[in-house]
Specification:
This protein has 568 residues and is an alpha/beta fold. It contains 14 helices and 18 strands. The strands form four sheets. The protein has an eight-stranded parallel β-sheet with strand order 9-8-7-3-2-1-11-10, with helices on one face. The chain has a five-stranded antiparallel β-sheet with strand order 12-13-14-18-16. It binds beta-D-glucopyranose.
């Protein structure tokens, strides 16, 4: 089914290029839902290895692997039992090495997810802490406190965890431990030198195995001010106020990343890192992206924007300026494993016909989304807008982080029965949040067969019938498919990404964005519904049909060196 431009067997030698990440296209693999080689219903490393030719044909520069560590999956693998091993349900360390070799041989770099804010409650250190007395060295690696109330029967503070429910859980001897997420995810104490040293060991462990970088989970959470009395907070993640939050985005956190930077720089090329950091302001986010720190930070601004020209232009302009000032490059994200897929977000219409971004409850809680009511979803329109937004995203300076399945134009799966759901956000917030399972349903590779080619067994989350039409097999054969649009865009993007700036060309229309890169590449997006005249130039790619004019909700790319207008 893959008619690759490069033979699958040809091995590529990765150049030593310290800047490879600045304009890279990074493809996020959520391993348990990508491809299942052993037919047990859960995606695995062998499955990823088998799909390396697919990733190469897609044209991505790097893969970011969500957690693959041993885990009871209380939070989709973000509850880690052992930071230096592979979950036996997914594979082995030897298979991990094989996967790195296969990706590198295909010219694809690999970034792994690192989860330093909390471990799982099955981690050897947490088990040791439970068995040890209050005040012991074992407890000091986590955040244990005595309770309040007459007999310590009340938690140390009234904090609610990010997934709902109390952020403190009591252990049999009466103490309480802090968990900002589920109770199976106890928070580490980053004032403890053993914790710091253990993460240094982990960073070297994976760097020595050839990984090219790290995605740092909850990067803004490690440094905490737990000076007593602990303050009362209505919401932990209230990052909007002017004051300091005791739990998030504290200045001291950057000492940790300066320390990590020294480790990254021990390698050639230096290992890279990208922070998941939710901060009060965009300029505080860029502190994580400093070359003396992690080097790059996720910018989730587009992911939270309406599909409209004005917010897109403001976000793009501001983030390019911030990136330049910080010495980093910016990042762009439209979908990931925590949010509703972007065709669905853009297909939810409200009364005035504009995309409803109200599904994002507050910026800092973007992963806790309400469901997508089927009767309010215009699937075709959502996909049309998503393709247009993606083509604009891919024309921008900086790196683009894509989420598995977005290259197929997958919508969120809304039809998952309650009894099949897995996300703790659903269980801890029942009735309020539908959770993130809808974007984590195993990928459809074939239009028929068991689990649509995901594996020979079932799929660990139910796949809907409409997956058939969105399968890799179906889209591979259709030149107008979203898959073939992504392939062509990623191929052209390698020509387009030669510098890190752009200029806006005024169009006289407030629903049209026209940008030009210094090398002459242009991208024009019509966010509105009325057609607009085509600009001069050689159109080499379009997110939808173009004939005579530029239809609504469509993006075109214009290549340098040609002035004839016309359809792609
Ligand atoms: C990850 C989520 C995870 C949470 C706790 C987030 O930033 O992206 O998937 O549930 O951290 O680890």
């Amino acid at each position: 089914m893959n008619t690759s431009l490069v033979p699958d067997t040809e091995t590529v030698t990765l150049l030593i290029d310290a800047d490879w990440w600045r304009q890279a296209t990074v493809y996020q693999v959520y391993p348990r839902s990508f491809a299942d080689a052993n037919g047990d219903g859960i995606g695995d490393l062998r499955g990823i290895i088998s799909r390396v030719p697919y990733l190469r044909r897609l044209g991505v520069d790097a893969v970011w692997l969500s957690p693959f560590y041993p885990s009871a999956l209380a939070d989709g693998g973000y509850d880690v039992d052992d930071y230096r091993d592979v979950d036996p349900k997914i594979g082995t360390l030897a298979e991990f090495d094989e996967m790195v070799t296969a990706l590198h041989g295909a010219g694809i770099r690999i970034i792994v997810d690192i989860v330093p804010n909390h471990s799982s409650d099955r981690h050897a250190w947490f088990q040791e802490a439970l068995a040890a007395p209050a005040g012991s060295a074992a407890r000091d690696r986590y955040i244990f406190r005595d309770g309040t109330g007459e007999n310590g029967e009340l938690p140390p503070a009234d904090w609610q965890s990010i997934f709902g429910g109390p952020a403190w859980t009591r252990v049999p001897d009466g103490q309480w431990y802090l968990h900002l997420f589920t109770k199976e995810q106890p928070d580490f104490n980053w004032d403890n030198e053993e914790v710091r040293e253990d993460f240094r060991t982990t960073l070297r462990f994976w760097s020595d195995r050839g990984v090219d970088g790290f995605r740092v989970d909850v990067a803004h959470g490690l440094a905490k001010d737990l000076t007593e009395p602990l303050p009362s907070m209505s919401t932990l993640m209230d990052l909007t106020g002017p004051g300091e939050n005791p739990l998030f985005d504290r200045d001291e956190v950057h000492d940790i990343y300066a320390d990590w930077r020294r480790i990254f720089d021990e390698y050639t090329p230096p290992r890279i890192a990208v922070a998941e950091a939710w901060t009060r302001t965009a300029d505080r986010r860029m502190r994580y992206a400093s070359p003396e720190g992690l080097g790059q930070a996720f910018n989730f601004d587009l992911l939270q924007a309406d599909f409209a020209a004005a917010p897109f232009r403001t976000i793009i302009t501001e983030n390019l300026a911030l990136a330049e000032a910080s010495g980093s490059s910016t990042t762009w994200v439209l979908s990931n494993h925590d949010v509703q897929r972007h065709p669905t977000r853009y297909g939810l219409t409200d009364a005035d016909g504009s995309a409803d971004s109200g599904i994002m409850q507050v910026a800092s809680k973007a992963w806790l989304l309400a469901g997508a009511p089927e009767d309010e979803l215009d699937r075709a329109r959502g996909l049309r807008r998503a393709r247009a937004a993606t083509l604009l995203e891919l024309a921008l300076p900086g790196s683009a982080y894509l989420y598995q399945g977005e290259e197929l134009g997958l919508h969120e799966v809304t039809e998952i029965p309650d009894e099949d759901r897995q996300d703790p956000a659903f269980f801890r917030n029942k009735g309020v949040e539908i959770g993130r399972d809808g974007c984590r349903v195993p990928l459809p590779w074939t239009h028929a067969g068991p689990s649509f080619g995901f594996g020979d067994g079932g799929a660990h989350l139910p796949q809907p019938a409409w997956f058939a039409d969105f399968s890799v097999e179906a889209e591979d054969a259709d030149p107008t498919s979203t898959l073939n649009l992504y392939r062509e865009a990623l191929r052209l993007r390698h020509e387009l990404q030669t510098d890190e700036s752009l200029e806006w060309i005024e169009t006289g229309r407030d629903d049209v964005l026209h940008l030009r890169r210094p090398n002459g590449w242009e991208s024009v997006t019509n966010f509105g519904t009325d057609p607009v005249a085509l600009p001069p130039g050689r159109i080499v790619l379009a997110s939808g049909p173009v004939a005579g004019d530029l239809p609504g909700e469509t993006t075109i790319w214009i290549a340098p060196g040609g002035d004839e207008g016309g359809a792609a």
